[in-house]
Write a structure and sequence with these properties.
Domain Flagellar basal-body/hook protein C-terminal: 88-131
Keywords: Bacterial flagellum, Cell projection, Cilium, Flagellum
Shape: elongated
Pfam family, one: Flg_bb_rod
Largest sheet: 2 strands, antiparallel
Main location: other
Order of helices and strands: HEEEEH
Mean pLDDT: 91
Subcellular location: Bacterial flagellum basal body
Low-confidence stretches: none
Number of helices: 2
Length: 133
């Protein structure tokens, strides 16, 4: 694999992890929201990645799609809430703050690793250019 492919692979991974971090931020921001823009309870977003073959046997990553988490909503008993049903329950988001924080740490570490990989490849290319001097 060429050193130039490393930039494509790491760049695509950084872009995908950035979208993952955005989804986590959205999930955490809406963790206590009773409604979303659609008027229904917010559902956590999950990012689905896809491997994309590149030239010379390299594989990049891209976001295939962003889906809503199919897990059930949390039902909270609050009969005074304006969104409460006839039994007094309010549908709250299915966001688990602990899982989202772990997801955020994983995505940020992956992003950081890809930055370091790109920097190492850049250093190798610069050292290669100085060999002929």
């Amino acid at each position: 694999m060429s050193l130039f492919n490393i930039f494509n692979v790491s760049g695509s991974a950084m872009s995908a992890q950035s979208q993952r971090l955005n989804a986590v931020a959205s999930n955490l921001a809406n963790a206590d929201s009773a409604t979303s823009a659609s008027g229904e309870a917010y559902r956590a977003k999950q990012v689905i990645f896809e491997a994309v073959p590149l030239a010379a046997g390299a594989t990049a990553v891209k976001v295939q799609r962003v889906i809503e988490d199919p897990s059930p909503l949390k039902m909270m008993y609050d009969p005074k809430h304006p969104m409460a049903d006839d039994k007094g329950y309010v549908a709250m988001p299915n966001v688990n703050a602990v899982d989202e924080m772990v997801n955020m740490l994983s995505a940020s570490r992956s992003y950081q690793t890809n930055v370091e990989t790109m920097n190492a490849a850049k250093t190798l290319l610069l050292k290669t250019l100085t060999l002929g001097q």
